[in-house]
Amino acid sequence: MAMQKRVKALHQLQHLLSTSQFRPVEAALTAGAIPLLVQCPSFGSPDEQLLEAAWCLKNVAVGKPRETKALLPALPSVIAHLGEKSSLPVAEQCAWALGNVAGEGELRNVLPSQGALPPLARMMLPNKGSTVRTAASALSNLIKVLEPFLINGFHHRLYYEINELY
Q1: Residue 164 pLDDT greater than 70, yes or no
Q2: Taking the model in full, what pTM does it have?
Q3: Alpha-carbon distance 29 to 10, whole Å?
Q4: Whether 16 contacts 23, CB under 8 Å
Q5: Helix axes 148-164, 131-143, angle to 10 degrees
Q6: How many CB atoms lie within 10 A of CB 145?
Q7: Superfamily of domain 2-164 in the CATH hierarchy
């Protein structure tokens, strides 16, 4: 029963964050929802809860820089859900969240050091449905405004990660 209530509350928050004209991200931060969202994507949670939490995190990540920075503690868990242990819908929402985080210039360089490249590269493999587009978009955001000397290293690293998969 408690799990159903949690999933329903996450769905309502996800709906507010994704459909409201004036998304209440700041209100969610003030109310303390972000630390709870950071805890939700733990392994062993029901898939429906993971999906709703990842969707919420994705929508928070598209906010203002301060709002996006609030997601830093969630990055390891979000990155972990890009792997084979998660369902494709959960992995796709997590990739989308990382793409949104990468869109925030200051946080872009944090993602490679957190290990986001290998699982995003793996999502580019065939038979992954729309997750291929989402992963490509996230990777594109990662390299958008890197310094020229970093781009060569990043491309080399990405090339290496993709080739390691074959």
Answers
A1: no
A2: 0.80
A3: 14
A4: yes
A5: 150
A6: 12
A7: Leucine-rich Repeat Variant (1.25.10.10)
